[in-house]
Model the fold of this input.
Amino acid sequence: MGGPNTVIDVNRLFNLRSYTVAALPTPGTAGRMAWASNCRVFNGAGTQEGAAAGTGGLVTDNGTNWKIAGTNVTAVA
Done:
């Protein structure tokens, strides 16, 4: 796809849409991915970032909730 909604760029890399956690589309279509700009992800020690301190991360729709990619942890800001 090209134009203003480029999904795959010239290097064949995905361009995910960016949302805040609160603005993510309603979950319900398993397999979708997005970037949540204020999602609280985990550091190298396995500790989740503190409230209102999210640095952002990849999230996936499991059909019911948006989860931090690669985990079963619901995305929160």
About this structure: The first strand starts at residue 18 and ends at 19. The chain is about 0% helix and 20% strand.
